[in-house]
Specification:
alpha/beta
Length: 192
């Protein structure tokens, strides 16, 4: 089987962010699996214009556009800011639309508090649905992220290894099924 192409998008450009540790750890777990190829994208690396917005800008970000066109799924790692997601994440996601349709998306929530980004994931679900992404039901939550990783990004809680495996198992299943569907079931949104 050809490996599934599933990029990871880190959704915050905040200074001293701990969610970078989560994203890097998850990418390392994905790289251990033969059925996945991945690459980390960071919203901090997108030089978004201040006076324009949306899909008209997608050709200004060809690496992102092309990886999503060829993607079988997507992982979004986002901290929770005031019960919502960062504006920089929304701006990057809004660069594309049709490119997401009928692809799996899995959410990783991060917080300094006890909820582990549960509310940011709840906020992202309707937005992802509008983009045409199919949301997995297995989220990965990192509460008290400052206690879960050390200052160098080393995971301190081995329980996340099994949680990460379960999360990725569901994502692989969804991405595989949707890839088969895109390849075999006619749709006005993609070629078969």
């Amino acid at each position: 089987m050809t490996p599934l192409n599933i990029p990871v998008l880190l959704g915050t450009n905040r200074k001293d962010r701990k969610s970078i540790f989560v994203a890097q750890w998850l990418v390392s777990q994905m790289e251990l699996r033969d059925e996945i190829t991945t690459r980390l994208f960071d919203v901090a690396d997108f030089d978004l214009p201040r006076h324009d917005y949306g899909q008209g800008l997608k050709d200004s970000f060809p690496e992102w556009r092309d990886v999503v066109i060829n993607a079988d799924g997507l992982v979004i790692v986002s901290p929770e800011y005031n019960h919502g997601y960062p504006g920089s994440l929304k701006a990057v996601l809004d660069l594309l639309l049709q490119e997401y349709i009928h692809k799996a998306v899995a959410f990783v929530g991060v917080s300094a508090g006890p909820w582990g980004g549960t509310r940011v994931i709840e906020a992202m679900v309707p937005m992802a649905r509008e983009l045409g992404l199919a949301v997995t039901f297995s989220d990965l939550n990192f509460p008290f992220v400052q206690r879960t990783f050390d200052e160098t990004g080393k995971l301190l809680d081995p329980a996340f290894e099994q949680r990460g495996k379960d999360f990725l198992d569901e994502l692989v299943w969804m991405a595989t099924v949707l890839k088969w569907g895109r390849d075999n079931v006619p749709s006005k949104y993609h070629n078969t």
